[in-house]
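Methods — Computational structure assignment.
A single polypeptide chain was analysed. Its primary sequence is given first, followed by the predicted tertiary structure written as structure tokens.
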Amino acid sequence: MLLLVQFLIFSVDVLAQGTVEDYNRAYGLREKYSAKHVLNGNVRPHWVSETNIFWYIRDTENGKEYVKVDAVTCKRTSLFNHGKLAAALSSATGKSFNSYNLSLGNAQLDKDLNTFTFELDGKKWMYDVKKNKLVDNGNVSQSAQQPHWMVVDDERNGSPVNSPDGNYVAYIKNDNVYVRELSTGREKQLSNDGTLSNYYSSYIQWSPDSKSVVSCKIRPVHKRYVYYVESSPSDQLQPKLHKQEYAKPGDELRFKIPCIFNVETGKALIPSAELFANQYDLYGPMWNADSKAVTFEYNERGHKVYRVLEMSATDGTVRVLIEEKEEKYVNYTRIYRNYLSDGRRILWSSERDNYNHLYMYDRITGKPTHQITIGEWYVRGIQYVDEANEVIYFSANGMDKDKDPYLIHYYRIDFDGSNLIELTPEDGMHKCWFSTNHKYMVDVYSKVDMAPIAVLRDTNTGKILMELERADISALLTNGWKVPEMFSAKGRDGETDIWGIIYRPSNFDPNKKYPIVEYIYSGPGDHYVPKTFSSYNWWMTSLAELGFIVVQIDGMTTSFRSKEFEEVCYKNLKDAGLPDHIAWIKAAAQRYPYMDVDRVGIFGCSAGGQESLGAVLYHPEFYKAAYSACGCHDNRMDKIWWNELWMGYPVDESYSACSNVENAHLLKRPLMLVVGEMDDNVDPASTMQVVNALIKAGKDFELVVLPGVRHTMGEDFGEHKRYDFFVRNLMGVTPPNWDLINKPR
């Protein structure tokens, strides 16, 4: 009888989750928790060029209010008379505007502090604030369609370039470099060896003294393309075939050699490629200020070596200015460089001591003179380099060992590494906008459990000059909003702190037992657990409302803790930090017994799609169900830059060892695969190859293909499928009929 009573209690507890009411309440949170219920929580300052004035939009109970602030006097006024502008717009457009519904796009205030320009309803407008005069400046021009981000620029379409002294123009003709004297029209061919398959770049650079030009000779390669069938185009009945340039790991890459030509003598300097022979890419070149050399950067294939090189304009010799060399990889995406105006010093960032720090190099000797920043923390960005006073303004995380190590703060430091000053000491994730003269900065900071605060600071000292806004979330709290929890626990090694976030349903009952669902996007490149305030998390808030505890975790393989912390990913992307995630979830469940560690699901998209499937393939004892969207399931099928950086080159057995396709036969848990047929980020064939492998292995799974959709978690249809999938497989409940759900459209 006791066992029967316990079973019935548990059954009632489960049946109380995943109901029609839960679904309707979950979908209703999009509105109840929307950002419109947060007042003044989205301050984004717009500094007026060459002034100490900025403006921003206040979110009042009535609507938007445009305000202007003088940083010198700390005086706040209206940017314009809202009623007058609303009346002028209503008259000019025939539409109804009031003082608080002015949503003005691409708005700018001129330095005269009177001329205000903006875009509205496809038109450009100019408003004279003092005279209350509104001028229609015509239609907004359509932006030219940009090439897809996967397309590599062939460097064939550059315009002719005039010399600094105005005497010559340089250009490409018949794949070779030419110049023409503007006064006489006399044309001179500088190169003779350019061909269709080994041509000169049209991005020609003149030396400052107008005596020489430099252009890279390019040996192109046959390009790989990915093909997509659009099954249901909106403008015709029959399907369409699309193709997209898409280099993949191991593909052959083009080769570039910088070549210098003297315009008067015609002398050509073609350097030895010994120091840049195995190219992933070559960036530049750019002329030194004295016209004696060009500088360019070499990224070695496999990313174990990165060099800044200098080529002499006298004899064509090449020497190393800076070299980064690592056993695993140089994270070239993170390098900051600043070639200082004195022509001698280079400000450089490097992870060589396990953290990202700043160094000063002497370009004459090619050696570092000193390390500027040092410590077990991470430089995240350089906002301003004050060469006159030899001061660097930068952002960093991890300097305060007693707080969340991911929170970004702002600092200043002298070139010699002295006088480190924290400018934003308040606890929180900070983001700053500097005035054009860098005397002032607007700082907006928050945490997931702390609403945003916006202040004006003195850039030199960090002193708060004026509080601008303190977000009001009272309406959000009235609607039942619950604060998510930041939680830390030890990782796989029992020593390293791993940080994550916990979302609970608004009707949370600690006496119930809740299944756990993890949202994952892991791996190198960033940290992913949110650190700033948000009223609604698209992936987590509504899912939790169905009766789950939803978590997200930054384990090893992610960035901005240390190089060592991140490098766990190397040739091992299938790790995905999952051993740390498992340890974290177990620690959270020990702290909170209502978290049912025996019912854990996981979902993600892109890298997260790869990782969520990997979770049930490699850790089925812990993860009991996975929803995987648009996953890069085999790194040999994915984009070249991401995968060769983390998985290495040449392509070796580590790629197949990490492949969800090769390991699909290990599947023991429920799986839903989702893919957009037009995914232009991850080749959709990657998902279909998993499907093929699962079918051959005789495995049961679900597949959702979204016609006409690109890279996606699943859109509204896939979201509902995801809800049902976890309700069915973690709660053991049959999801309600879709026709009974009030989904927002």
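Note: The two ends are 48 Å apart (CA to CA).
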